[in-house]
Amino acid sequence: AGGTDTETAAAETDEEEEEEEEEEPLKASPDADTTVLFTTTNTMLDQQIPATKLVRVLVGFTNKGDKDFMVESMEGAFRYPQDYSFYIQNFTTFTFNTVVQPNTQASFEYMFTAAEPFAGRPFGLTIALNYKDTDGNPFLDAVFNDTISVVELDEGLDGEMFFLYIFLAAAVVLLIVGGQQLMASMGKKRPAKKQVVELGTQSQSDVDYDWIPKEAVDQMNKSSPRRSPRRRTKRATGSDEK
After folding, report:
1. pLDDT greater than 60 at residue 241
2. Does the pLDDT value for residue 238 go beyond 60?
3. How much is the pTM?
């Protein structure tokens, strides 16, 4: 019985040691350096990233050692700012499986998109690079591990507003052209003023009476004792003959 208890205690001790080894977090290799750059426009201004927009991250990897490194993958996640062990959103894992030889550099791009419901809230953003050496030893480098805020990006002029401005500009142009055509047509319809020509004093014989009713002409002749020069000439001739 004593031997069994001893074996049980030894087995529990071995399991605890294995658990401690498994729980030990992976770290970056001292023979590797990494740099990170957010290449998307309007990203990481005041530690902010836009919601619903693709965020691009460029990670540089430098092998300073004398052994090859195999860069396997890169992954990202949103975590609770007060407790980084609590995951809120995991992003897609990018697989590379690229060998980086000693004293050389390589670049790797990672992309992710923050969901719209996360806008206006802070999160812990972690981006981790997984790689291993030629002996199979795994390493993990948290190339970015900081608190950021997700914001709604105001683009200023979207497609709908652009076409609205075009429509308004076209409407203004049509109104101007229509107004000019209307003014031109009104100017053409306006009757021209007749030029008044002074003819001076005319004799009664030069007056056109065709447009005056006959009764009015007869009345005018009765009321006017004037005679035409032709009749006076006839009477004068007749008296001479006598």
Report:
1. no
2. no
3. 0.56
Note the pLDDT of residue 73: 97
Report yes or no: 204 and 231 within 8 Å, Cβ to Cβ: no
Q: Measure the CA–CA gap between 21 and 180, rounded to whole angstroms.
A: 88
145-168 pLDDT, tens digit per residue, is 999 999 986 655 556 666 788 888
d(Cα 123, Cα 150) in Å, to the nearest integer? Answer: 8
Q: How far, in Å, CA of 39 to CA of 142, rounded? A: 18
Quote the CA–CA distance of 103 and 15 in Å, as a whole number: 40
The rounded distance, in Å, linking the Cα atoms of 66 and 85 is: 35
Q: Which pLDDT score is estimated for 97? A: 96
51 neighbors 114 (Cβ within 8 angstroms): yes
DSSP string, 192-207: PPPPP-------GGGS
Strands (E), the chain: 32-38, 48-50, 54-63, 69-80, 83-90, 94-100, 104-113, 122-133, 138-151
Q: Which residue has the tokens 């805020």?
A: 149
49 phi, psi to nearest 5 deg: -130, 150
Q: Which residues pair with 100 in a beta bridge?
A: 69
* Strand 48-50, strand 69-80: pairing: unpaired
